[in-house]
Design a protein that fits this description.
single chain, Rossmann fold, 16 helices, ATP-binding, ATP binding, helicase, DNA helicase activity
């Protein structure tokens, strides 16, 4: 059989080399995190450049430490015997310097694995074409095609870490920029949970019309100041309703005033629209009905790759009960809650979603961890569970509705209750001190 040729463009090779160099930068800066995720690179078979440049770095260090071992290299990179800065090492190795976060590193690994599979696929097609042209035995062709297809499938690797390794990973993580943690914008909530990490999930439960959706959009509004993209899945409200709430929260006007504002072309309208777009230019809305969790993950990957072209900072879903799935309602809700957690870990983004409470609760009932409706698995699968209920009957002449956010499950701290108010005109929410 003739030697097959893998046909790839120069641009394709250039992009692979750039990704490999970014990975080298990440290795030098955060070696423990690099080795923590090394198993994810198991599918990538084209590591010549990585190995070559690692050897260059190793050679530079060896000039200073003649008896350096692999453990010595690890200690050196971990900062135990740091005598040169990261940039100095990379410069000496004639490598460009990149500031790469753990989230970006995981995306780079995924890209390399995709490219690896692309090159395997090209090779597979070349070989299959040759088989079809030259073989007279259909069974031989069938067996070879199945073998080639099997090699393209992803293989899960085993990653086992000892305590020292996970402590080093923890150290590397906490030293990364604070932007890695999503904040709700409610100070007492954020202090209690210490931010929401990539891969974590939050469920907010409450009765119908209590203000769950408004709370979710307020969190989105607050988070938008981070500059990171927000992806809002509105399975309940259509785009017009989402837009009106955005106008209310951003401008402080009520729904009636929002209609009047946008009914007539004016300088005021243009100024308001420009202000809203500037503030929420990173806020993306999806109102497709009947979404499955698989479709949600596909949307996340699509938006990151083709729309915002960067890592999403926060995902909001309104609400869990409207996601499609197989089986009875309890099975659907249970499976979807579990799958949202798996998606959060896979895409490495925090997810906040809404859910209903049991029928026994009313708008004034203090909620607890058993108040989730349709499935107890919801509370088990999430990292944080918030409840929202009315504190007391509001004054008839008051625009402020007193509410309570209950911290019903908190992986990183205490439980408790936080008093907030929602303005009935513009749906803005704020913490209150009592």
């Amino acid at each position: 059989m003739k030697t097959k040729t893998i046909k790839v463009s120069n641009n394709f090779i250039t992009e692979i080399i750039e990704i490999e160099r970014k990975i080298i930068s990440f290795l030098i800066r955060y070696p423990n995190l690099f080795f923590k995720h090394l198993g994810k690179l198991s599918e990538y078979e084209f590591c010549d450049k990585i190995a070559e440049e690692l050897f260059t770095v190793f050679s530079i260090l060896k000039k200073e430490h003649n008896e350096i071992t692999l453990q010595g290299l690890m200690d050196y990179l971990s900062g135990s015997v740091y005598e040169k800065s990261v940039n100095e090492i990379l410069s000496a190795a004639k490598l460009p310097t990149y500031e790469i976060t753990e989230s970006e590193f995981l995306i780079l690994i995924e890209k390399l694995n995709i490219y690896s599979n692309k090159m395997k696929l090209i090779s597979f097609l070349d070989e299959s074409k040759e088989l079809l042209n030259n073989s007279i035995d259909p069974e031989e062709v069938k067996i070879k095609l199945l073998e080639n297809l099997t090699t393209i499938k992803k293989n899960k690797s085993f990653v086992v870490q000892n305590v020292k390794e996970i402590l080093n990973s923890y150290k590397d993580f906490v030293r990364q920029p604070d932007e890695q943690r999503a904040r709700t914008g409610f100070r007492k909530v954020d202090e209690a949970i210490r931010g929401i990490l990539p891969g974590e999930t939050v469920c907010i439960i409450g009765k119908t019309s209590i203000g769950k959706s408004a709370l979710l959009q307020n969190i989105g509004h607050n988070f938008s100041s981070s500059g990171l993209p927000i992806l809002f899945f509105s399975l309940e409200l259509p785009d017009i309703s989402v837009a009106e709430r955005i106008i209310q929260i951003e401008t402080g006007c009520d729904g009636y005033s929002a209609e009047n504002l946008f009914r007539n072309d004016s300088e005021t309208l243009q100024h308001s629209a420009d202000l809203i777009y500037t503030t929420l230019s990173n806020f993306y809305v999806i109102t497709e009905s009947g979404l499955t969790t698989e479709r949600i993950e596909a949307y996340i990957n699509f938006v990151e790759k083709y729309i915002c072209k960067q890592k999403i900072g926060l995902i909001l879903i309104d609400y869990l009960g409207l996601l499609s799935g197989k089986g009875e309602l309890y099975e659907q809700v249970s499976m979807n809650a579990k799958q949202l957690k798996e998606i959060a870990k896979r895409v490495n983004v925090p997810i906040i979603f809404l859910s209903q409470t049991t029928k026994q609760a009313d708008v004034f009932s203090e909620l607890n961890i058993n108040s989730t409706r349709d499935s107890g698995v919801v509370a088990e699968s999430v990292d944080f569970l918030f409840g929202i209920w009315k504190k007391k009957e509001e004054q008839a002449d008051s625009n402020e509705i007193p509410l309570v956010i209950g911290l019903l499950k908190n992986r990183r701290g205490h439980l408790g209750k936080i008093n907030i108010e929602m303005n009935r005109r513009n749906l803005r929410m704020k913490e209150i001190n009592e």
